[in-house]
Amino acid sequence: QVQLVESGGGLVQAGGSLRLSCAASGRTVSSCAMGWFRQGPGKEREFVAAISRSGGGVIYGDSVKGRFTISRDNVKNTVYLQMRSLKPDDTAVYYCAADTITGIGVSTSLATYNYWGQGTQVTVSS
């Protein structure tokens, strides 16, 4: 069983930055592919970023490429999402997810991830 707890969300002005954290327990983040997804008001949950088990594979959604960075601290067993140049369209609940089964490099598909956190709200004001 894996527990994922997100934190770091909040209200920020457009152009600002936030760093989200996802603390894992029950499994080391280095043994899973980890991903971040988000769901804006009235929208479907969408892929944001993912990092492979080895850490060597990283992929980003087109809308955040160049602005967001996913990283992992194996000692703290935590995955981070550094968000810069935030836009009002980035407003969403952000979810951390773990893939403990498939073993593929990185995936953009929600169906690949079998554990999810409860989410943290990010609101970007214009």
Task: Describe the fold and architecture.
The chain has about 130 residues and is mostly beta strands. It is built from no helices and 11 strands. The chain has strands at about 5, 10-15, 20-25, 35-40, 45-50, 60, 70-75, 80-85, 90-100, 115, 120-125. The strands form 2 sheets. Strands 2, 4, 5, 6, 9, 10 and 11 form a 7-stranded mixed β-sheet that branches. It starts with a strand and ends with a strand. The model has no long low-confidence stretch (mean pLDDT about 95).
- Flag low-confidence runs: none
Residue share in helix: under 10%
Largest sheet: 7 strands, mixed
Number of strands: 11
**What distance separates the N and C termini?**
40 Å
Structural class: mainly beta
Order of helices and strands: EEEEEEEEEEE
Enumerate how many helices there are, as a single number. Answer: 0
Beta-strand percentage range? over 45%
Specify the overall morphology.
globular
Mean pLDDT: 95
Overall radius of gyration: 13 Å
